[in-house]
UniProtKB/TrEMBL annotation:
PROSITE patterns: CYTOCHROME_P450. This is Cytochrome P450. Pfam families: p450 (PF00067). Belongs to the cytochrome P450 family. Its cofactor is heme. It comes from Aspergillus pseudoustus. Keywords: Heme, Iron, Metal-binding, Monooxygenase, Oxidoreductase. SUPFAM superfamilies: Cytochrome P450 (SSF48264). InterPro entries: Cyt_P450 (IPR001128), Cyt_P450_CS (IPR017972), Cyt_P450_E_grp-I (IPR002401), Cyt_P450_sf (IPR036396), Cytochrome_P450_monoxygenase (IPR050121).
Amino acid sequence: MAIINYFSTLIPPLPYALPPAVAKHPGPFLACASSLWGFYLNLQGRRAHEIVKAHQRYGRVVRVAPNLLSFSNPQAVREIYMNPNFTKSSRFYIAKHIFNEDMLLTFRDPHRHRQRRKLLSRGFSQAALVEFEPQIADKINLLLRHWGRLAQENNPIDVYPWAHMLGFDIIYHLMFGIDPQSVKTGKESKVMPWLRAWRPTFNYKEMVPPLGQYGPYIPGRVGSYFRLVQKWKNYAMDIVRDCRETGTKTPFLSRVLGGVDESLGRPLTDSELAEECMGGMFGGSGTTANTFVYALWGIIRDASIVNRLREELDEAFPDPDIVPDSVTCAQLPFLNAVLSETLRRYPTITGLLPREAQEDVIVDGICIPKGANVATGNLTVHLDETSFPDPLTFNPDRWLASDAPRDALVPFSVGARKCIGMNLAELELRVWLAAFFKRFDARLDKSMTENDMDIYDSFSASPRGGRLLVWLEKRRR
């Protein structure tokens, strides 16, 4: 009965029953008619692309669901996500529960979110990352040594799975003080397939919320995703219990294990902490790995970008075999321009983040009535031609200009709910890219196509082809 009742909400009330301030905005007919439009495109990995097309056709404000307006103007990002008169839309964020606990990503109540973020933020602070940087450098060096040996076999290297193994090893080690050794062994951890299974459950739970409770009991492929997530949850709880028993003191756990979430008035249970750790594993591994893969795709295809990057790196780091330090990397203009352009052109969080108006409010000069839902999407904002002329071109120089549109670059969102792992991601990517281009000459395999690297959007994004084949050769200097 719950499922039947839910499906009755997929078709909206008659247009006149929607607030006129929402219903008047144009959008694709099927999007305005039913939320099924978005769900279907999510399953195809195409929703973000279709929303970009809709903005190109209809303008800066587009209706992409019966009661959801998408904005393309970058100024709308801060007007929505830094405005206390908006709260997270319930249906969307309930679907983002990993299993059955609220966590940092899903809290709708600002006070609860603020207290949970306060409890977790120590593990991702600059001080914690400085302490952990030697482990990051060791893992990057080990990966590049592996690639150097594989390059001698005279075959292209698929860097995609290796990048995901490195991203996973780093975040897992940071949180638990345990090295999964995926990079060392060249075999992904058993946890990684469980982690990947979470992403499809987003869409299924948003379409049919009761699957959050009954998903593991559904036969076939759909149910298999939920069963894998259930395995992951049980595994994470075992790790948390082990860490409590052994007194693990990583930067992430040192405060969390015994600390009090002030909104609850108590420490986190094993179940609550396990799901926060699961969220960290998901958010801190695949997104960084995919950004690195897209950076290689963007850089290697333009010899002038490669040469300018190398000139800067060689001057800053004369030793060709070191893993550069993060402090120096953060001060290199062209390296950071390349990273900014990668985050712009290939954002790895592409899903809309809907907010519901708690009272009438103005966004981008438009009155949004109480109860209406609004959102921006990174792909839409980052391809806005007003802020980014020739937006499909990978052009790091746009970030070296004095009037660079930095406020329009929002890969980690903004405000109190921006990505808690932003510092880790930027450190990792700067050092990884610097070490790679100091050590290797690289060219793309001829089999690689634009379609392989097309953004597959399912809230988080990845290359549609799931691969990046690269020929590597040790640099001769």
